[in-house]
Amino acid sequence: MSSRFLSGTVLLVAAALAMSRAHAGERVVRFCVDPDNLPYSSADGRGFEVRIARIVAAEMHARAQLVWFPLKRFFVRKTLKAGLCDVIPGVPVGFDPVLATHAYYRSTYAFVSRPSGPASFDDPRLARSRIGVQLVGNDLAATPPGHALTARGMIDNVRGFVAYGEGPAGERMVQALAAGDLDTALIWGPQAAYFAAHAAVPLEVTPAAAPPGLHGIPFEYSIAMGVKRGNRALRDELDGALARRRDEIRAVLAEYGVPLVDRVGGRS
After folding, report:
1. 47-68 tens-digit pLDDT
2. Predicted confidence (pLDDT) per residue in 128-148, tens digit
3. CATH number at 107-207
4. Could you tell me if 137 and 130 are in contact, meaning their C-beta atoms sit under 8 angstroms apart?
5. Is 156 helix (H, G, I), strand (E, B) or coil?
6. Labelling 257: which of 68, 197, 203, 220 has CA 20 to 30 A away?
7. Do domains 3-105+221-255 and 107-207 have the same CATH topology?
């Protein structure tokens, strides 16, 4: 059993005890977040999703209760559907297991490389580069960048990084870049910017556009908060809070260097 899972379990028990001691009459909105998932959330209070959860809860005249739970398989079933929390931040718009708010940001995958390194699917050096990609399934095509590279015949020079391990996949990929084990990496934008900024060597982050001919596989995603399906009242209240505190939320995203795509706001 991993130390990350043990840490999450201990923190979950602590969160449950804290909820039981809530002051009478105090409104609490419970947000399920991972204790080891920067730049989104961390048990020490860092992470832009933690900051945004507190901003939104305050706008709702409530206290944000952080329910720590490792981001593993069946996360929604074991948290939101089990009644452990009211809200899951950071879900893609259209994510079927939840009822989503309007998006509060939209981002894209990005190339991360050393200065002047390959940062485009059209760069001829890419075919002979060591490329890192994130994996969310058992095959390389599980992520849009992996699918794009596979479509171009780049398999042998690609290294996959699974979501679960010692620290976030984006962090491990940036460490591999800094150590010289990779020439470039394709990482989800918020992770790309955050970990590149904290790397041991200078790295550049370049938003990645889907190469021509790659139809129906988006590189950009709108991100929302999710509540239990059918809970329209809470969803609508969150929508209002997100809209009223939009500028403050955007400032937090900018502080974390999240690459933003202008089109945002729908549920689609």
Report:
1. 999 999 999 999 999 999 999 9
2. 999 999 987 544 446 899 889
3. 3.40.190.10
4. no
5. coil
6. 68
7. yes
On the CB side of 130, CA atoms within 13 Å amount to 13
Taking the domains of the chain in order of start, what are their residue ranges? 3-105+221-255, 107-207
- CA dist 226 and 12 (Å) reads 19
Phi, psi of 264 (to 5 degrees): -155, 155
Task: For residue 99, name the pLDDT band (cuts at 50, 70, 90).
Answer: very high
The CATH number of domain 3-105+221-255 is 3.40.1000.10:
no
Q: Are 209 and 110 in contact (CB under 8 A)?
A: no
| Residue type (1 letter), 177 | L
For 43, the token pair is: 């048990």
Number of Cβ within a 10 Å radius of residue 262: 5
CA distance 122 to 148: 12
The mean pLDDT of 242-262, rounded to a whole number, is 96
The 10s digit of each residue's pLDDT in 149-186 is 988 888 889 999 987 777 788 999 999 999 999 999 99
- pLDDT at position 210 is 86
